[in-house]
Amino acid sequence: METLTQLSERFGINAEYASAAFYPVFRGNLAGVRVLVLSDETTRRYADPFAQKLRDRGIEAEGFTLPSREPVADEAACAAVEERAKQGFGYVLAVGAGTLNDIAKYVTFRLGLPCGVLATAASMDGYASGVTPLIKNGQKVTENAHTVRDILLDTDLLRTAPPLMTGAGVGDILAKYCCLTDWKLSSLLTGEAVDPDAMALMRGALEGCVASLESIRAGGAAGLNDLLRALLVSGYAMVLAGSSRPASGAEHHMSHFLETDFLRRGKPVPLHGVKVGLGTLVSLRLYKRIAGLKEDFAGKAEAAALAVPLPTPEWAARQLASFGCPTRFSEIGVPKDVFRAMLFNAHTIRSRFTVLTLYHEHGLMEGAADELTELFY
Ligand SMILES: [Zn+2]
């Protein structure tokens, strides 16, 4: 099997592991360039020593720390980083996970500078993605950005991330069972084209990650690498498919629906992978109950057949719970009425056929909503 570094190279990304040589490829591209090392108050403890190591090796590096333990990628944060990056820097290295990576990608795309990330948590699949979710005027929007040039991976560092963050990464990967099935379902029922390479790449990485769950839980290097591979492959599969189809289905639409609601209520938004993990439990449940429905409808046989090889929602819930991830929507403060609104409306988030669309088109959610509310509260 191609190593993650080889695979990443195919997609124009330098995925480099920590070693005694201290990221030689990354450093080799920085000759004469001033580097802005971006952190927040949580990741500064990694960023400061990293900037020092760069300076020790003759690279001009300066730190910039956002004054928050959990910043959000909003206008104010992006403007602050942009202002700093404009002061003669030629590269921005984010030391963090989702939010800082998103800010760095967006700001450097605007400034025409390359960027990279020293990953501090295997918590989400946006490391290798070319778009960036931002919060603008209190709304979640997806902005064009570019992909990072370098992804620096240090399993010793990733091991120190809170288990919930690793669990969020696992949630974002278990989600691929559902979104790949949604894609197949759509191809059978609507004729949507499936990209077999993207699907095979994603499925292989998903299976590798699932086979390593024990090692991931134990903080083993091999397990964390399999999780990272799957998280990065999500980005590469999207590039191959030319859309987010291989990495995002109904479970992501449910997460997106909830995110909008958290923002509207002015509440802190739970981790992406945590919400997606919960959406995955709902999607698995929706698929598994199709065979037992008394209603007959177009697509029932196809959907029921696709549900057979899927893992059970109970198994998925056990995996998430083993990382301390919530398995009920009540645990993340989603009111029951919002949960029900999500069941009935999340399919409108995107015009993409998923198991939620199937339920909606055939009026099946009425019969499922009480059962699901009971299960998830
Ligand atoms: Zn995701």
General description of the model:
With 377 residues, the protein is an alpha/beta fold. It has two domains: 4-158, Rossmann fold (3-Layer(aba) Sandwich), CATH 3.40.50; 163-376, Dehydroquinate synthase-like - alpha domain (Dehydroquinate synthase-like, alpha domain, Up-down Bundle). Helices cover 54% and strands 11% of the residues. Strands 1-8-5-4-2-3 form a six-stranded parallel sheet, sandwiched between helices. A two-stranded antiparallel ribbon has the order 6-7. The structure holds zinc ion (ZN). Zinc ion binds at residues 124-125, 172, 252, 272, 276.
What is the structure about, briefly put?
This protein has 377 residues and is an alpha/beta fold.
Protein traits:
11% strand, 2 domains, 54% helix, 377 residues, binds zinc ion, 17 helices, two-stranded antiparallel ribbon, six-stranded parallel sheet, 8 strands, alpha/beta, Rossmann fold, Dehydroquinate synthase-like, alpha domain
Give a topology summary:
Layout: H1 4-10, E1 14-17, H2 24-28, E2 35-40, H3 44-56, E3 61-66, H4 75-85, E4 91-96, H5 98-111, E5 115-119, E6 131-136, E7 139-144, E8 150-153, H6 155-158, H7 163-190, H8 196-211, H9 213-217, H10 221-241, H11 250-264, H12 272-288, H13 300-307, H14 313-322, H15 336-345, H16 355-361, H17 365-376
The structure holds zinc ion.
